[in-house]
Protein: Putative aldouronate transport system permease protein
Amino acid sequence: MTKRKSLHSHSTGYNIFRTINLIFMLSIILVIMIPILKIVIDSFDEKASETIFRIFPEAITVDAYKLILSRPAIFRPLVISFITTISGTAIAMTITSFYAYGLAQKNLPGRKFLMGLALVTMVFRAGMIPLFLVVRNLGLMNSLWAVLLVHAMDAYYLLLLKNFFESIPTSIFDAAEIDGCTPLQTFIRVVLPLSKPGLAAIGLFYVVYYWNQFFDYILYIQTKPNLHNFQVFLRSLVIESDTQGFEGFSFATQSLKNAAITVSIIPVLILYPMVQKHFVKGINLGAVKG
Structure:
């Protein structure tokens, strides 16, 4: 009889696998972290360069951050960014969750048609010009509603949430129905609390999207610059630094660009640890069956 190979915790094969896996994962972490480290380090370096990577800044300065935070005009775009991010995420999550819950019902009339309607948007996209014409004809130009509603639902996130809803045991729905819950009460009181991991993950995706928006503001809000968000403000600041320079600040333009990137990702970095526990819980829910 031939001896079967196994990967027990004390076997040579297992140790080799762990070593290779560790090296592979560390390589991926380095590939991800090096660009981020360069951005953060260069934001504190008054001699920052696009082509040179330094472990420590050559000449430490915080002038780029002073320039960004000392501008009185920063506060209105920042407030608009928070408002549109919160409102847009709430609208998108409401539409996506209701649509996904409907598609998760096997006996829903027209379910295949509604599913196909969502899938078509993943394959065929009209493009910028037809979308602009639709927004203009609906009278949404120069309004925050254009930014909030244009991407109020993503078909990919819809399918993810639909699959998550379908993973909930049908016995829970039967128990809620026996207790006298209406379909809406079942959705709000039973499905949503059980779907916190999925909702948290997709909600974070929407938050990142709405927070990072800047092109939609430029495209749809043309005559009201006071409605532009924080990202547009940072973009204008970087363009201004390329053309004018700033009195009292001596640093490379690259330092200002990296400082702007760093400031823009801080809210997401703060938010992620708050929803990380839901990701971990989602992994545990997916692993335990029966």
